[in-house]
C-alpha cells in the first residue's frame, strides 16, 4: 500500500461560496475549482479572510452562503474521517498541549487511515520517516517538538500533512519562519506533489514566491472583492498595488516578474 | 507512540499484585507472603482465612479500585482540558460529592445513604459545571476549567458552613470523609468492574485521544469527530470520579500525580498512559492505605493524608528534575 501514489482523484470546488467573518458584510462569492496538478496561491492583506477561507475549504467552519464540494459531494455530508483522507491542512499556528517527539507528531498524520483497533505499523513509521526526510528534519525525529525552532516546527507540520497523504493539500503560509533555502525547498516539494497529481492550495505573503511557483492565483481584497485565474493574468502591478495599498516596482528576472515595494 | 506498550504494563501489573500481597499481609496480625498464599489455596487456619478474605482483601481491592478510578479519571481530564495539571476534581466534582455526603451525615443517615447522597452530589455538580460552561454553545477548555474552579470554591464555602454548624460528635466522621478513607468502602466489586469496563472501552479511543490532545482544530482536520469524543471523555471521567468519591471520600493527589508521573516517564501515548494509570493509581492507593493502617496502629490515619504527604514531594521532585 503506497498512499503517496493513490490513483484517487477528487477535486475541491466551491459554488457561490461566501465565507463567514463575523461582523463583516458579505464578500464576493467564490466559484473556485481546484484541479489535480494545480498550485494555487492566495494573496491578500492581513485580515482579508485567507485563513477563514482555508478553514472553510477544509470543512472546519461553516460558510455563510454557498457550498464547498469534493467532486459533487458537499463537505458537510462527508464523514470527517473520509474527508481527512482526501483533504489535509497545515495550520498557521499550532498548539502543543503535551510534549511529543517529531516522529510521533508526523505519525499523527496516519490517523485517518487506521482503524480504531490498529496500531501504527512499520509501514506507517517508514512513511512518516520518508516525509520527515523530504522536509529535511529526519535527523530531529527523536527531539521534542517544543524544543525546535519555528522553521523546524513548520517543516514538521508540512511533513505531518505529507504523512497524512491527502489528495488536496491546503496550507496556511507554509513558508512562514523558513529560511531562504527551505522556502525554495518547500515550494519545490509542493510543485512536485502537484506534478504527481495532488492539488495544492496555499495562502502566501510573499508575492515573489507566488509568482515563481504558483500557476493559479486568488486575490482577496480588503473590501471583500476577489478575483482569481491563471497567475500571469492575476499578478499585474495595478491589481497588486490595490491589493496591498502599496506602490510596487516591477522588474523581470529570468522571464518572471519580480515585485519590489517602493520606498515611499 | 511506537514504543512497545506491553512491557511497562506487565511491570505495573506485577507491582499491583505485589502491593496487594503486602497489603493483605500487613496489620495487627502480620502474615508472611507464604502464609498469604496458603490462604488463597485454602490451607491455613480459619482465623487467617477470615482475616484475609473478609477483612483485608475487600479493603485492599477497594483501595485499588479507588486509586485506579481516580488516576484514569485524572488522565482523561488532562486530555480533555489539554492541561497536564488538571485533576479529576478540577470540575468541582468532589465538592459536590462532599456536600452530599456531609448532608447525609448531618441528617443522621448511615452507610448506604451516605454513598448514595455523595454520588448524587457528584452528578449534580458535574451537570451544573457542564451546563454553565456550555452557556451559549461554545465551551472551551479554559471556560470549563474556570467554571469548575469557581463552582468548587462555592462547594468549599458550603462545606465550611456545614462543618461550622454541625454538632461536635459528627465532626470526626465528617473530617475523615473529607480527607478520604477507604474504610468507607462497602464493597469493591462495582468499582473494580467499572474500572475494567472503562479501560476496555478506552482501547479503541486511545489514538483519537492522542490526536485530540493536539487541539480540536488539528484533530478535526485529521478526521476526529471532536465534539462527540469530548462529550464521551467528559462523561466517562465524571462517572469514574463519582464512583471513586462515593467509595472512599475525596482522596487528593492520586488523580493529579499518577498520570503526570507516568507521562514524565512513559511519554504521552494515551493508549499506554490510560491503562498504566489504572495499575499505578491502584498500586499507590493500596500502599498508602497499608501505611495508613500501620503508622499509628492501632489507630488509623485517613488515607488522603498519606497520598498528599507522599504525593506532593514526589511530584515536586519529578517536576524539578524534568526542567
TrEMBL record, chain B:
The chain crosses the membrane at residues 62-81, 88-106, 112-132, 144-168, 188-210, 231-258, 278-296, 303-320. It is found in: Cell membrane. One of its GO terms (cellular component) is plasma membrane. Pfam families: FecCD. It comes from the Bacteria. InterPro entries: ABC_BtuC-like, ABC_transptr_permease_BtuC. Signal peptide: none annotated. GO terms for molecular function: transmembrane transporter activity. Keywords: Cell membrane, Membrane, Transmembrane, Transmembrane helix, Transport. The keyword Protein biosynthesis does not apply. It is a multi-pass membrane protein. Belongs to the binding-protein-dependent transport system permease family. FecCD subfamily. This is Iron complex transport system permease protein. The lineage of its organism: Bacteria, Pseudomonadati, Pseudomonadota, Gammaproteobacteria, Pseudomonadales.
Amino acid at each position: 500500500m503506497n498512499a503517496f501514489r493513490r490513483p484517487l482523484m477528487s477535486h475541491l470546488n466551491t459554488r457561490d461560496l461566501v465565507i463567514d467573518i463575523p461582523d463583516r458584510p458579505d464578500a464576493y462569492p467564490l466559484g473556485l475549482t481546484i484541479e489535480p496538478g494545480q498550485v494555487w496561491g492566495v494573496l491578500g492583506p492581513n485580515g482579508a479572510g485567507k485563513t477563514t477561507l482555508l478553514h472553510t475549504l477544509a470543512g472546519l467552519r461553516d460558510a455563510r452562503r454557498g457550498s464547498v464540494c469534493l467532486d459533487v459531494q458537499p463537505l458537510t455530508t462527508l464523514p470527517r474521517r473520509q474527508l481527512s483522507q482526501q483533504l489535509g491542512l497545515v495550520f498557521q499556528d499550532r498548539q502543543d498541549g503535551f510534549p511529543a517527539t517529531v516522529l510521533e507528531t508526523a505519525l499523527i498524520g496516519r490517523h485517518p487511515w487506521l482503524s480504531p483497533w490498529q496500531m501504527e505499523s512499520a509501514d506507517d513509521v517508514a512513511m512518516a520517516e520518508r516525509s520527515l526526510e523530504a522536509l529535511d528534519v529526519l535527523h530531529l525525529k527523536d527531539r521534542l517538538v517544543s524544543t525546535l525552532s519555528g522553521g523546524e516546527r513548520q517543516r514538521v507540520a508540512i511533513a505531518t500533512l505529507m504523512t497524512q497523504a491527502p489528495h488536496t493539500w491546503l496550507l496556511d503560509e507554509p513558508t512562514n519562519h523558513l529560511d531562504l533555502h527551505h522556502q525554495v525547498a518547500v515550494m519545490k516539494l509542493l510543485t512536485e506533489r502537484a506534478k504527481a497529481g495532488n492539488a495544492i492550495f496555499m495562502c502566501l505573503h510573499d508575492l515573489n514566491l507566488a509568482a515563481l511557483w504558483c500557476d493559479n492565483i486568488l486575490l482577496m481584497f480588503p473590501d471583500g472583492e476577489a478575483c482569481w485565474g491563471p497567475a500571469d493574468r492575476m499578478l499585474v502591478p495595478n491589481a497588486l498595488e490595490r491589493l496591498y495599498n502599496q506602490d510596487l516596482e516591477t522588474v523581470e528576472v529570468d522571464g518572471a516578474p519580480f515585485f519590489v515595494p517602493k520606498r515611499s | 507512540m511506537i514504543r512497545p506498550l506491553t512491557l511497562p504494563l506487565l511491570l505495573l501489573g506485577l507491582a499491583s499484585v505485589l502491593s496487594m500481597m503486602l497489603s493483605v499481609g500487613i496489620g495487627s496480625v502480620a502474615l508472611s507472603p507464604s502464609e498469604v498464599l496458603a490462604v488463597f489455596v485454602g490451607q491455613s487456619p480459619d482465623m487467617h482465612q477470615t482475616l484475609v478474605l473478609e477483612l483485608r482483601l475487600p479493603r485492599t481491592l477497594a483501595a485499588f479500585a479507588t486509586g485506579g478510578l481516580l488516576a484514569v479519571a485524572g488522565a482523561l481530564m488532562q486530555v480533555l482540558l489539554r492541561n497536564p495539571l488538571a485533576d479529576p476534581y478540577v470540575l468541582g466534582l468532589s465538592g459536590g460529592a462532599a456536600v452530599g455526603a456531609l448532608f447525609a451525615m448531618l441528617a443522621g443517615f448511615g452507610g448506604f445513604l451516605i454513598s448514595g447522597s455523595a454520588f448524587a452530589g457528584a452528578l449534580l455538580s458535574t451537570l451544573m459545571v457542564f451546563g454553565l460552561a456550555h452557556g451559549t454553545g461554545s465551551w472551551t477548555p479554559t471556560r470549563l476549567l474556570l467554571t469548575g474552579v469557581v463552582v468548587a470554591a462555592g462547594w468549599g464555602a458550603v462545606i465550611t458552613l456545614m462543618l461550622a454548624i454541625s454538632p461536635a460528635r459528627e465532626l470526626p466522621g465528617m473530617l475523615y470523609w473529607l480527607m478520604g478513607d477507604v474504610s468507607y468502602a462497602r464493597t469493591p466489586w462495582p468499582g473494580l468492574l467499572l474500572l475494567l469496563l472503562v479501560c476496555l472501552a478506552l482501547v479503541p479511543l486511545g489514538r483519537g485521544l492522542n490526536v485530540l490532545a493536539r487541539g480540536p482544530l488539528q484533530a478535526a482536520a485529521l478526521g476526529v469527530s471532536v465534539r462527540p469524543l469530548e462529550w464521551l471523555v467528559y462523561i466517562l471521567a465524571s462517572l469514574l470520579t463519582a464512583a471513586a468519591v462515593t467509595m472512599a471520600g475525596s482522596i487528593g493527589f492520586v488523580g493529579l500525580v499518577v498520570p503526570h508521573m507516568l507521562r514524565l516517564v512513559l511519554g504521552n501515548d494515551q493508549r499506554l498512559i490510560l491503562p498504566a494509570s489504572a495499575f499505578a493509581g491502584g498500586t499507590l492507593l493500596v500502599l498508602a492505605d497499608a501505611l495508613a493502617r500501620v503508622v499509628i496502629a492501632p489507630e488509623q490515619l485517613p488515607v488522603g493524608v498519606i497520598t498528599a504527604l507522599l504525593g506532593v514531594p514526589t511530584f515536586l521532585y519529578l517536576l524539578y528534575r524534568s526542567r
